[in-house]
Amino acid sequence: MPYAVYRVSNKAARESGHPIVGLLTVELHFPEAQSLKAKRMVVKSIQDRLRRKFNVSVAETGYLELWQRAELSVAAVSGARRVVESQLEAMTRDLEARFGAELVGTSFELIE
User: Fold this and answer.
1) CATH tag, 17-111
2) Which of 6, 42, 59, 89 has the fewest Cβ atoms surrounding its Cβ within 10 A?
């Protein structure tokens, strides 16, 4: 079966080069959580909010079996570095504003 060839018609898209991937890692602590079910309800709410508001991919990547800890990884992709950086910074500000007491730390990296 022959493969399809797709051409990019947008000149800016052709000249933008390779994609930039931003990875935000968020560590949270939920002292009030008394079960995995309670923790996962809050984590799911955070994941849904980030997906809806910022159109990013979100996964729980750490502390899966601990009741009061969570690690989320968030991925954003764009053709422009400044777009990814501003999106990661906006997500960090949003999380700090909503979950300041629960937020243990954040870090982000860019993969070019």
Assistant:
1) 3.30.70.1120
2) 6
